Amino acid sequence: MRRPDVRVAGAVIALLVIAGAGAAYFLTRPAASVRLNLVADTQLAALELPGEPSGSCGTRVCRSILRVDRSDETRPVKVTAQGALPEGVRLAYWGCAEGPGAATCTVRPDRDTTICVTTTGPADVARKACGTRPGPPVSAASGKLTVLFNTEWDIKVFGNFEEPCTNGGVLGRKCQITMKPGKIYYLRSQPADPSPPGQPNPDYNYADYEGCDSGMGHGSAGICIVFGATTAKTVCLSTGDPAEQRLARECLAYRKAQTP
């Protein structure tokens, strides 16, 4: 009987060992990772980004790279301010599942992506910090922004929208503005002073807003900022007229929960 070739048998055994080792590697190798590119873009405060710093911080922009395991499960991404933000101002995230300008951020780490964080402070909003960065797909649906005039003053609200918005001096009148998701709306107001000619009252010739995404109690010298969404939002407008203090207090019910 012919004896088996020792060299052939050795080669077969070696191939089996290699195949087994390869299978074990693919079964035990670590999950592939994805890269989350984080960008902090704000003029108001220094922000602490998770991950490894990427380059040096400029006058207002810092970057980091956060590597996480690839997964279909969502996970939070949290950026913190190194100091206290101004009253009524919060962080705003772009590129997260919650949508543009969200107060919190979660992502599904199934691919490399970029997340930008800024603040709702007027200085950051005015220069559209992070606003041009891609977010999740925008829904074709629209939402409604209601402006409630809780005042008898004749006030006109204007901004980057087409709908007329005024109360004609009628208490409780409302106007509605169609919102597009992802768009930032800037509301300004111009009260008409009802004082007799020659006797102006500059001490309370202003309007206050409650319900803005940019914070609480904006006077007419400021801007009420509302992030467009597919939901319904309400901004309550009152004045500093001492005779309308009760009406101004009623607007506090519309104050955003995340503002002081």
Automatic annotation (TrEMBL):
Lineage start: Bacteria, Bacillati, Actinomycetota, Actinomycetes, Streptosporangiales
Protein name per its UniProtKB record: Uncharacterized protein
Gene source species: Thermomonospora echinospora
